Amino acid sequence: MEQIGGLRFEHPVLLALPAVPLLLLLAARARLRAMPRLQRSAALALRIAIIWLLLAALAVPFLASNHIERSVVFVLDQSASMSQAQQAAARAWVTQASALLGPDGHTAIVAFGRQAQLAGPDGAALGPLDGSATNLADALDMAQAIQPAAPGQPRDLVLLSDGWENVGQAENALQPGTVANYVALPPAQPEVAAVSFDVPPSVRAGDALDLSLTVRSSAAMGAELRLTVDGQPAATEPVKLAAGVNRMTLSPRLRGLGFHDLRVEVAPERDTRADNNSLSGVTVVKDAGRVLLLEGQPGDGAGLATILANDGLQVSTRPAGSIPPSADALDDFDGAVLIDTPATSLTLDQQKTLQLFVQQLGRGLLVVGGPHSYGTGGYTGTVLDQILPVSSQPPPRPKRPSVALFLVVDKSGSMSTSTEPDEPTKVAMAREAAARAIAMLQPGDTVGVIAFESTYQWVVPPTQLASQADIQRAEASVAGIESGGGTSILPPLSAAYQAAAQASAAVKQIVLLTDGESDESGYEALTGQMQADQITLSTVAIGSDADTNLLSRLADLGGGRYYFTARATAIPEFAAKETAILTTMAKVEGTVSAQPKDASPLLRDLSGDFPTLQGYEATTPRARAVTALVTAAGDPLLAHWQYGLGRVVAWTSGVAGDDWADAWSAADWASANRFWPQLVCWTLPGPDSPDFHVSAQIAPDGRLVTLRAESTNPDGTFADLLDTRATIRLPDGTAREVSLPQVAPGSYQTTLALDRPGAYHVLFEQEDRGQTARQATVGFAVESPGPEGRTVGLNEPLLSLLAERGGGHELRQPADLPPSLSSSAVEQRLPLWPWLLGLALLLLPLDVAARRLSWRRPFRRPADIQPPLAEDEEPAGERTAAD
């Protein structure tokens, strides 16, 4: 031991009282003067010594010495994840380290599993220790509590563990001033364990079930992955395990409704133990879902409807124009498919119905393209366009093809009226519409304008525009259109067709604007000729008096768009939109290849080359969307995104079996029966009821399960004070019913102990006024062994984190204990006051004797004899000290 200190006093101020013995000396001087000199000197010396000894004892003197000592708390992991060999190695390590600390070392041992206990010198816990879980945080708390940090000195802990924990959070348990070194204890090699198996609680019938398995392996090796469903083999595949964490996915498809028990097993080439290689889960298969097919043209969705129905979906087919004005009317459907429908055929309310159906009700929407959809269908700038994961505005092209636009404008007498008071006449709006349409053309395009009533005339003869001046002259010509006369549509329409057929432009379009009716025949033949010459016809019906049936049919037959407006002021907008569609060239026709781009669940299990297409609508991808398929030019073919609470998929080519996607039908492509249902099923919401959400949450240690139900009313308020129960089917087939008390608004919960492994099936029921109001099902599985039996290797990230936070590091050998390990100068005191007090007590009899005993000689000389004293005389020389 190193001697650092010396003689010290706790109350040194008492030593500053030397006047006390001097005062006593002066007080006793008169009584001691009769004593012989030697006796008087001895008495005074003894009295002064006794007083000084008492004063010194009251000052509490002691001899102080400081010693450098080393102290450490060893924290031993004795959970079930630690093998007997690992625990024996830990105890041996502690024994060697304690010996190296020497006689000046102070050690304590904390053993832990589910809880922490003090341990003896041999590392055995002094109390019962449950090793079924690892609570490292509790162990660190106890270790820090039994080693209080001295001022300016750290606490030193040495953790001997594999680093895995499943109760508590160790990283939050370290206190300031704690240095946590660690000794890593690797387990036996090789070892493979299935760690987690994520199974969705429910799935729609026929949909892919996304299973995720996590396997830890101590070394790289081959293995076989096996899946069983309800005890029957469902899938087997070889896998390669890397050293560390391996994540694998499986996507089986389940058909039968109700509970299904799943078990996955990994069979490695080499393993130390085999009881931790499998895991179980439970899912509930529910209805495939109800889908509404909205056809732009009757029969468009027939092939798709057959494919979806064969996949188990319940399909209803309706015309796109039958979309209700309120989304609530579609509440019975989980999703909708809009097939080759122009936006111009849908009212604003109908488009908002689709928007709210997805955004607020959380339902799905698949928009299938075709020659009347997306940019060609006038989606740009509409509510429908806002929903889509692609913009209907096509990407810019280096040079667009030439355009031939022919406007057939009604100037009959009815066009001289206004649709609303104080508004311009219909013919005035028609003139403005013609002027705006012409202004959007460019040199090289062809334009012609026919004005008609009972007869017709060319206001702007067919003219190929050579310059901007030609465009301005054509605009000025339409300003002279005036109304008057009857209505005859077929002749001017035929004249426009003949002019368009002779035009040399690549794209040819006729636009008819009228507010009248016509009983003429021959339209079918005329539109047939237009189709043969690739000339499209769009129509604008102005006011309720217009022959809307004829005009909408002409647009359908002519491959164009149909517009209806009750207000003349909308006519220029429609004409401008038609010209914009014509000049942007959204429609792309010809042989097109489909190429994968972004990883997407829509292409799950699809391998090989995709069939070619014969056309699509050019669009622009949106930033937040996933683009699954593109063309060779990079234009999106298949894209999807989340929109509000729901999902939307955009397919920019045609529906299965039509002219554009004929090769994508079930008859020509083996994967069609998987591809098309996947597009629809991905958009559908989960099968669980949104107003009664149930769950079964197993605690990390696998001993407890929390059953929870959250309930709301149709108006969104919490459903409170309802009788809520759960019937649990145990692994042995018996059932048990428990009540779920309400714990929060609309929330009901109970926690149960789990005493056996296996699959559990739970039926939740909620009663309102004695009637069953809601039901839901969920399943879960309890594993054996639990989490403690599924650790592989070391959790070095956690061990390193604990060490870094306190400035510690890994210790490989006991000799690696740092020399400064909790080194502290410990003061030891040797008290001296008992010795001083004892000495004073020993001197006290001598002091008494010195004052009481006679120090005179026994025989005196005659000269010394005194004469006798009178009775009242006192001898002067015989006064005692007491006198």
Could you outline the blueprint of secondary structure elements for this entry?
Blueprint: E1 7-9, H1 19-32, H2 37-58, E2 61-77, H3 84-101, E3 105-112, E4 116-119, H4 136-145, E5 155-161, E6 178-184, E7 192-198, E8 202-204, E9 211-217, E10 221-229, E11 232-241, E12 244-250, E13 258-268, E14 278-286, E15 290-295, H5 302-310, E16 314-319, E17 335-339, H6 348-359, E18 364-368, H7 383-387, E19 390-391, E20 403-410, H8 426-439, E21 446-452, E22 456-464, H9 468-477, H10 490-502, E23 507-514, H11 523-532, E24 535-542, H12 548-557, E25 559-565, H13 571-584, E26 587-592, E27 595-596, E28 613-617, E29 620-621, E30 626-630, E31 636-643, E32 646-651, H14 672-683, E33 692-698, E34 704-711, E35 723-729, E36 735-739, E37 742-744, E38 747-753, E39 758-768, E40 771-782, H15 796-806, E41 824-831, H16 833-852
Parallel strand pairs: 2-3, 2-5, 5-6, 8-14, 15-16, 15-17, 17-18, 18-32, 20-21, 20-23, 23-24, 24-25
Antiparallel strand pairs: 1-2, 2-41, 3-4, 7-9, 9-12, 10-11, 10-13, 13-14, 19-29, 21-22, 26-28, 27-30, 30-31, 31-32, 33-34, 34-38, 35-36, 35-39, 37-38, 39-40
Helix pairs in contact: 1-2, 2-16, 5-14, 8-9, 8-13
